[in-house]
Structures are given as structure tokens and as C-alpha cells.
Write a structure and sequence with these properties.
single chain, alpha+beta, Pnp Oxidase, Chain A, seven-stranded antiparallel β-sheet
Length: 161
């Protein structure tokens, strides 16, 4: 069995990491051939990554929807766990597109709970959902659908020695 399979996260670990970890990093293709790599808060629903943001990453995804997302946790190499996904993202351009998305309401509730108190204010006992919606030229929800995935759990390295 290849080392990559021996180190792979199981489905429960993936779900736990995707619903509790605060930051993902999204890599998009910027103007020309430059990569734009940005840390973002995110939600997870229906096997997709949901990010609300603005600016260059939205512009990049409109031009080229191909991107890569990594979600990782822990800093020391023997404790590193990560999920790297490659796929395509769509930009939800308006409130109608947001309303038509089957998982956005679930994700808004999830993000409201996950980031409760994360903007420096005290946490709420009953956090409201994330209320972000399309605004301005580039404030948008981006919905990433993975078509390939690699995971690793370096805690498993010790058992391979």
C-alpha cells in the first residue's frame, strides 16, 4: 500500500476538520500566470467549500474557475493533518443564485456558530447565521466543488516505523 494511503485521513476525521478548522487557503490563478494564495474563513456543506469574500480571488474565479484549497491543522510536522482539494469554484453572483444553492443556508448557520466571537466581540449563546450576501462589484459567495483530494495525518507516521 502506498505511503499516501497509509497516512490518509478517514471520513470522520475529514468531516471534523472541515467543520471545525477556522481557515482554509485558496489558490486561484491571478492575472497572467501568477498564483493568488489567500487564507479565508469557510463553511462546509454538501461536500463543497463555501467562502464569502471580495476582491482579486472573485475576479480570478470569474476568469478561471480552477483552483486548489487546503485545510490543515497543527504546526509541528509529526502532528500535521491536512486535506488538499483541487476542483472548480463558481461565484454566486446575486441573491437569486444564493437562494438557489441547496446548502448555503446550512453553511451560513454553521459559519455563524464556528466563528462566534471571532471578530473580537464576546461570543453569543445563540449566534446568528452568517448574513453575507452579494454586494458591490466583487463581494460574493464562492462555492468550490472538489474533483480530487489528497489527505494526510502525520500522527500515523509513528506507527509506520
Amino acid at each position: 500500500m502506498p505511503l499516501s494511503r497509509k497516512l490518509a485521513l478517514d471520513a470522520d476525521q475529514i468531516e471534523e476538520i472541515m467543520t471545525t478548522t477556522w481557515n482554509c487557503r485558496i489558490a486561484t490563478v491571478g492575472p497572467g500566470t501568477r498564483i493568488n494564495l489567500t487564507p479565508m474563513w469557510f463553511g462546509w456543506g454538501g461536500g463543497k467549500v463555501y467562502i464569502y469574500g471580495r476582491g482579486q480571488k472573485v475576479v480570478n474565479l470569474r476568469r478561471n474557475p480552477e483552483c486548489t484549497i487546503i485545510v490543515d491543522r497543527n504546526e509541528k510536522f509529526p502532528e500535521l493533518q491536512a486535506i488538499m482539494m483541487q476542483g472548480r469554484a463558481v461565484v454566486l453572483e446575486d441573491a437569486d443564485a444564493e437562494a438557489a444553492d441547496a446548502h448555503l443556508d446550512e453553511v451560513r448557520n454553521q459559519m455563524g456558530r464556528k466563528y462566534n466571537g471571532g471578530h473580537g466581540q464576546p461570543p453569543s449563546d445563540d449566534p446568528p447565521p452568517n448574513s453575507a450576501t452579494a454586494r458591490g462589484a466583487n463581494g460574493r459567495w464562492m462555492v468550490f466543488t472538489p474533483d480530487s483530494q489528497v489527505t494526510w495525518d502525520n500522527f500515523k507516521l509513528a506507527s509506520l516505523r
